[in-house]
Design brief:
By secondary structure, the protein is of the alpha+beta class. Helix content is about 45%, strand content about 15%. It has 14 helices and 14 strands. The N and C termini lie far apart (about 50 Å). It comes from Electrophorus voltai.
């Protein structure tokens, strides 16, 4: 229910009576170019990110907007998207059909591994940037208390159907200017990648400067406090001294690991930190599963709970990290599955089976989507029955998602 107090069930139950009324309102709004102020009102409800929040940043603001406005926005969105190209911004992996965090991370890692595979002296620099229309009144609700109303005239309104499309249109021209740099976007989480050869960092530094200028020209502010630099350099024979990157007059913090879209990416491209995090989170859920077992819930119900609360954690973005995880990492995660089997008294699929299944599923979706930025990696041989394997020099690239996905597709034929 939005701030206007009208819930969706009422609109659905009275659709026949209300449809002509709202049709006239929507058409009049489009004709005059004015949106009713009651449609633009929103209520912000802060939801804690952690059990004991101690700072305002520990809350996630959730905007409740009018259901009527959402219906209106869907009509406008469909009209706008019908006139747009199928792939307006190929490296924007959010708000697009058949795109997900898996695709963004897989593209990021494949580009990195391919560049490292091409030469011993190559390395990659990644700059992770997190958190990059008019007269919209909003207030904040906490419990039964409401704040005074504040009218906003800038930014993409949260909770609105049109906001993702408007943001994508606004940032679609934020693209790389050099063949040795790549800008990968997932909503406002942006990664600037510099594919560096012969220790030539000029294109990477110029790309960062270009992004900074683009933000200034488009009235966007880079959040330097949430901007981190990660250097992936697998060359053991060369010792390099990396100069710090500065943006907006501030030195960017360099880290050895960064949590990008829920996945911990380390500078050595190992996955122990990520799998340890998954195992810890999954083991915490096992406690609740044991408690429910003590109440003598049927095994079928317990299995469904496992699938929803534990397996969903273990298989999150599994296609991008499982292939290069170590035997010890996999065993630690598999122990969680075996513990769940003892609790539920049912046989559960092992992670290797889940990984292989998801590789095939993900690969088939990419093959069927010619607008996908990684569709070009899947090319058929002359026979038309099998896909061409990707050339790899290192075991690290060979075990990554795309070579494994092609192998899984060929085995399934």
């Amino acid at each position: 229910m939005g701030p206007d107090g009208i819930c969706g069930r009422v609109l659905k139950a009275c659709a026949d009576q209300l449809a002509p009324v709202f049709t006239d309102i929507f058409n009049l709004s489009l004709t005059l170019g004015i949106v009713p102020s009651s449609f633009k009102r929103s209520t912000i409800v802060p939801v804690p990110k952690k059990p004991r929040p101690s700072d305002l940043n520990d809350y996630h603001p959730v905007a409740l907007t009018s259901v009527l406005m959402k219906c209106f926005e869907k009509l406008v969105r469909d009209f706008i998207t019908s006139s747009l190209p199928a792939s307006m911004d190929p490296l924007q992996f959010a708000y697009c059909h058949n795109r997900s965090t898996d695709d963004a991370i897989a593209h990021l890692l494949h580009t990195t591994l391919t560049h490292l595979d091409e030469g011993r002296g190559n390395y990659v620099k990644m700059l992770f940037i997190s958190n990059f229309i008019t007269d919209r009144p909003q207030s904040v609700w906490v419990g039964n208390c409401a704040s005074s109303t504040l009218t906003l005239s800038t930014g993409a309104p949260q909770g609105c159907v049109l906001s993702p499309l408007l943001y994508s249109l606004y940032t679609h021209d934020c693209t790389a200017t050099s063949s040795s740099t790549i800008i990968v976007k997932f909503a406002d989480d942006t990664v600037v990648m510099g594919l560096i050869s012969d220790n030539d960092k000029r294109a990477y530094l110029e790309e960062i400067k270009h992004l900074e200028n683009w933000c200034q020209e488009n009235n966007l502010l880079l959040n330097v406090s949430k901007t981190k630099e990660l250097i992936v350099d697998c060359s053991k024979k060369q010792e390099r001294h990396y100069q710090p990157v500065r943006t907006s007059g501030t030195t960017v913090e360099r880290v050895d690991s960064f949590r990008y879209l829920g996945v911990h990416i380390s500078q050595d491209l190992s996955w122990s930190r990520h799998t340890n995090s998954l195992a810890k989170k999954a083991r915490q859920r096992l406690y609740h599963l044991r408690r429910l077992r003590d109440f003598r819930l049927p095994s079928k119900v317990l299995r469904n709970l496992y699938t929803c609360t534990i397996e969903s954690i273990l298989m999150g973005n599994i296609t991008v990290w499982f292939g290069n995880s170590t035997k010890q990492d996999r065993q630690a995660l598999q122990r969680v599955v075996r513990s769940a089997e003892c609790i539920t008294h049912t046989e559960l699929p092992d992670l290797q089976t889940i990984y292989h299944k998801w590789c095939q599923t993900k690969a088939r979706r990419i093959v069927k989507d010619p607008t996908h930025p990684n569709n070009r990696l899947f090319s058929l041989l002359r026979s038309g029955r099998r896909f061409r394997s990707l050339k790899t020099k290192t075991e690290r690239l060979k075990r990554s998602f795309f070579p494994q996905a092609i192998r899984a597709l060929n085995q399934g034929k």
